[in-house]
Amino acid sequence: MVPEPIITFESVSKSYSIYDSPGDRLKELATFNRLKRHRDFWALRDLSLQIGRGETFCVIGENGSGKSTFLQLVAGILEPTTGTAEVRGRVAALLELGAGFNPEFSGRENVYLNAAILGLSRAEIDARFAQIVAFAEIGEFLEQPVKTYSSGMVVRLAFAVAIHVDPEILLVDEALAVGDIYFRQRCLRKVHELRQQGVTILFVSHSMGDVKAIGDRTLWLDQGRVRDLGATDAVVGRYLAAMAEKDAAYLELKPTALPGQRAAVQAPEVVRHIPNVDHRHGDRRAEVIGIAVLDEHGRPLASLEPNARCVVRISARANEAIGQPNIGFMLRNHLGLDFAGTNTLRENIELEAMAPEDVVTVDFHLDLPELYPSAFSFSPAIADGNLTHYKMCDWIDNAISLQMGHAEGQVYGYLHLPCRVEVNARFAQPEEVPHG
């Protein structure tokens, strides 16, 4: 059970009537629905869930899966066709671009209009107007009609209003995707602040990085039905795996070309231990059988050190013929975000085709930069195909995790870039550069 649910859906379904032509709608109305001229499109089917107060709840899925319909039901814009949707608390919604704005009104007028719709009095809007304008940063355009705004400016103003009406529930539906990187970063920081204040946030996005950064739980919708619901890392992992498999079904892979009958190839040294498996996916035509993080002499590392060298060793076995094996790993930070990664093809290493029972070991020699002290995990994988046309054979989430030690100096942000500093220097003028 979710503690203190603020949103409760019980067997909610939403249907839209689809007509082949406008005339069919009129004919159906003329017969008072006795002659059905439409077909039903079910955007959502039998959705039951609870969302707790203060929870950041993300919704993912392909286009047309019902994500926006779900948020519109929470916002009260739509009513369920069947079932019940109960929402307790003031809702501020950033849904369709410019929704709730009158394009003929100025930005100032739309601030007052939108905030009044969300339940604020004139005095409350007056008290918060300066903060809204400061966050939006649209300058003199505040006095211009909204129809003259760019899409990014509309989002700036809409988001500024939404976060300053003291919402108990904030809905964000992919609108931030049209903003510039500076404003998106400010918005995401504000989302984190609202989380700390106990605001419930429903966030729809195709950016899995953003979802993993802020989501407590994630709902995966597929053709209007719940495909998965649970902890964000696990749901996103299964979603990405399904998308990779779907994409691979449309791609033509290089035909398998293997030598004739021969003995299975065995690597001289093989890792046969996987410390941890959070989630695993792939068709298992080949599989990772071991991963280790070692020093330059092949000794297992207990931790990572800034500016040190290490070796990520991955062993994999083919269960079926693999025409284009590609082995690699993803490095993740403590938030579960994909921090860095590589694979054999990315490093211009083409592995030989593998026959069943072949075992190969790949060593990735890394020069670690100065990273901030935190836990980092390695997720190994083997695929069949090239960098764009491939099928995932085996992927293991967070197979091994190590702590990064402290750097000699302060690390600002995520890593310290190699840097050489000069003071009062100047560049040589073109006529001073020697020729020949």
- What about the largest sheet? 6 strands, mixed
Give average pLDDT, whole number.
84
| CATH architectural category of the largest domain | 3-Layer(aba) Sandwich
Q: What is the total tally of β strands?
A: 20
Shape: globular
Q: End-to-end span in angstroms?
A: 76 Å
If strands are numbered along the chain, what order do they take across the biggest sheet?
5-6-7-3-8-9
Class by SSE composition: alpha+beta
Order of helices and strands: EHEEHEEHHHEHEHEEHEEEEEEEEEEE
- Total of DSSP H or I helical runs spanning 4+ residues: 8
Q: Examine the coordinates and then state which fold CATH places here, giving the name of the CATH topology of the largest domain.
A: Rossmann fold
DSSP helix fraction: 10-25%
Task: Say which CATH homologous superfamily of the largest domain is assigned.
Answer: P-loop containing nucleotide triphosphate hydrolases
Question: What amount of the residues lies in strands?
Answer: 25-35%
- Spans of at least 5 consecutive residues whose pLDDT stays below 50 are 253-257
Instruction: Please state the CA-atom Rg, rounded to the nearest Å.
Output: 27 Å
**CATH class of the largest domain, please?**
Alpha Beta
Tally of distinct domains: 2
